[in-house]
Amino acid sequence: MSIIFSGRTSKYLAQKIADSYGVELGNSSITVFDDGEFQPSYEENIRGRDIFIVQSTQSPTENLFELLLMVDAARRASANNIVAVIPYFGFARQDRKDRPRVAIGSKLIANLLTAAGVQRIITLDLHADQIQGFFDVPVDHLYASSIFIEYLKKLNLPNLTMASPDTGGTRRAAAYAKNFQTGFVICYKQRAKPNEIGEMALIGEVKGKDIVIVDDIIDTAGTITRAADLMMKNGAASVRAFCTHPVFSGKAYDRLVNSPFTEIVVTDTIPLKKEHEKFTVLSTANLFAEVIRRLEKNQSISSLFQF
């Protein structure tokens, strides 16, 4: 039987994954020194065992470094297989050299994890699919669509139309639209600089439609709230957002609360800083537990995501 451990930032989710999988969460601890340095330790024997370390790598970067230390500790304790379960993979927006003299952060993170001793990665809704190719170990890339679709069906929206808040998410919105056999619309934006939108235009008809915007990350919420405003001004009946990772930095929370969104549906890959009636949180625990179970039994994982 595999053992599931957790870093500090994702313990709330790791506990739910362990419960769903049917095991106790592994016993580990973190010693924090007065200067802020910290040292993870496994408080049970893991020699020859398959271990899964659950840790999202959102800000601050010490979450990433804690994961690296836990992987290194497991390797030195002679674990058989070390799998990093990274519900939210930070630095994923740095997937290419889009201007001179910048780092490709996600490639660097892949190198660090591999060097530390990771033998497999499980993650959810990477910002860029090609990041899987940055690793020289297997990557199980999961999709929140398997969770969102069931919830969306229950809403039974009469005039459902899918939407992407930018051209980069067109493929995602089109896939949802194909599944529900409905149309989709796109927002076209031009950025003045990072996290600041210059102009936005709408491609497609939204009048009288129940719009569902799908995206992988809500960061500052500038793009998605502006898209919601634009759609309502063009006659949409309602606007909802389905987003996997609620990063919610800067003024995001206030922007979302004061937006025309009827509902904002997210997952628990990152804990919400504050709750609000507009936010619905769907758990990823059963999905991760099922993937761990299938890995242990050498069963297909791709069959979970026929959509």
Task: Please give a structural write-up.
- The chain starts with a strand and ends in an 11-residue tail after the last helix.
- The model has no long low-confidence stretch (mean pLDDT 94).
- A seven-stranded mixed beta sheet has the order 10-9-8-11-12-13-14, sandwiched between helices. Strands 1-4-5-6-7 form a five-stranded parallel beta sheet, sandwiched between helices. Strands 2-3 form a two-stranded antiparallel ribbon.
- The chain has helices at residues 11-21, 62-76, 105-116, 145-155, 170-180, 222-233, 252-257, 285-296; strands at 3-6, 28-32, 38-42, 50-54, 81-86, 120-124, 139-142, 160-164, 184-193, 196-203, 210-218, 238-246, 263-267, 279-282.
- Helix 7 (252-257) links the parallel strand 12 and strand 13.
- It has eight helices and 14 strands.
- With 307 residues, it is an alpha/beta fold.
Number of strands: 14
* Bulk shape: globular
Count of separate DSSP helical elements:
8
Radius of gyration: 20 Å
Unreliable spans are: none
Helix content: 25-40%
Structural class: alpha/beta
Terminal CA distance reads: 30 Å
Largest sheet: 7 strands, mixed
Mean pLDDT: 94
Note the beta-strand portion: 25-35%
H and E string:
EHEEEHEHEEHEHEEEHEHEEH
Oligomer: single chain
Instruction: Trace the largest sheet across and list its strands.
Output: 10-9-8-11-12-13-14
